[in-house]
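A reminder from the course coordinator: this example appears on the midterm review sheet, so study it carefully.

Given structure:
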């Protein structure tokens, strides 16, 4: 490893120290979102003092001033001085992605990572030692049925559903247009949660019918708590592991296969193959590892998260191809989007 480092990095470990502080940077952003800093600054017509922000949000002035300064330091906020007072305002990036009211808000993703993923990662070393998720140690919940842990209350289920929607705000269009899917007239998004990805599919292929298939409680929550666009997407309740799945020309499995060990993935893929019409296919949406194991770092971090939180892992294109072929699918195509999630299309 040392031969790849510059002499300056060997003399003083700037990069390592940056990595060491990564969790602190994350928690700064998480805390600002939880406190409502970005929402307040977005609504304000003027830059605000730390005292004003603290008063509005019910915090100490000293603590808020330190937080705002640190957010300026990582270039998420801006600051100017007027008559000796520091006045803070949001950057365009903060307004677009961090304020709760923005059309592209990642607020739900941040809250989930702060309140659920962050505590789980505190037990990462135990997850590596034991080879299993850490719900029991972190939250006192059985680890064998991790979706029961994820959906342990309506509040927690809504948090999880919120983060799923956030992913498709960023990556939805790219993954549904990675291939020309216009020939598939009937599309079923298995485990489609809030319908956010299904809406992207419907917009990209208006001639196709798109159905979200998910657990009854998820479908009910999606229709009750998440805004449904006028895209023609329909919802159907069921369990794709234990029950029947609707017939379709194309099945979408987005961030589903990575949750499970290979034997369970194969059982699901074989079930889909048997339900798939001739000439139909399956679209997998996952974060793909490189075959040489050298990255992408985001996918490698996601794979560790699958260890901490589920029973699955991220995989390479060849590993997905092997599972698809073993399930009966052929003509596997892989598209790396350059974003967080990639696409794999296989045809019966």
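Designed residues:
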């Amino acid at each position: 490893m040392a031969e790849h480092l510059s002499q300056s990095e060997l003399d003083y470990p700037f990069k390592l120290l940056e990595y060491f502080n990564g969790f602190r940077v994350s928690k700064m952003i998480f805390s600002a979102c939880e406190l409502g800093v970005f929402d307040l600054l977005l609504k304000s017509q003027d830059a605000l003092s730390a005292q004003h922000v603290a008063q509005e949000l019910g915090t100490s002035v000293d603590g808020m001033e330190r937080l705002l300064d640190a957010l300026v330091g990582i270039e998420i906020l801006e600051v100017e001085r007027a008559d000796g007072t520091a006045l803070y305002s949001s950057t365009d990036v903060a307004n677009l992605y961090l304020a709760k009211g923005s059309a592209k808000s990642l607020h739900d993703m941040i809250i989930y990572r702060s309140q659920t993923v962050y505590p789980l990662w505190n037990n990462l070393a135990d997850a590596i030692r034991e080879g299993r998720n850490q719900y029991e140690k972190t939250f006192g919940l059985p680890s064998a049925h991790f979706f029961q842990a994820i959906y342990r209350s309506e509040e927690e289920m809504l948090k999880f559903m919120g983060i799923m929607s956030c992913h498709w705000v960023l990556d939805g269009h790219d993954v549904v247009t990675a291939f020309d899917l216009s020939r598939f007239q009937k599309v079923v998004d298995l485990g489609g949660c809030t319908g956010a990805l299904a809406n992207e599919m419907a917009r990209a292929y208006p001639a196709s019918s798109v159905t979200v298939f998910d657990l009854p409680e998820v479908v009910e929550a999606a229709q009750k708590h998440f805004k449904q666009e006028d895209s023609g997407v329909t919802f159907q309740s069921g369990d794709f592991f234990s029950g029947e799945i609707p017939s379709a020309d194309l099945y979408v499995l987005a961030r589903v296969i990575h949750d499970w060990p290979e034997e369970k993935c194969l059982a699901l893929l074989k079930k889909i193959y048997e339900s798939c019409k001739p000439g139909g296919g399956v679209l997998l949406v996952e974060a793909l590892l490189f075959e040489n194991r050298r990255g992408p770092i985001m996918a490698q971090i996601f794979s560790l998260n699958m260890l901490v939180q589920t029973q699955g892992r991220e995989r390479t294109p060849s590993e997905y191809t092997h599972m698809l072929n073993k399930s009966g699918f052929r003509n596997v195509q892989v598209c790396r989007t350059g974003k967080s999630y990639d696409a794999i299309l296989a045809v019966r």
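The mean pLDDT is 95. Strands lie at 48-49, 77-82, 85-90, 186-190, 209-214, 234-237, 248-254, 276-286, 330-335, 342-347.
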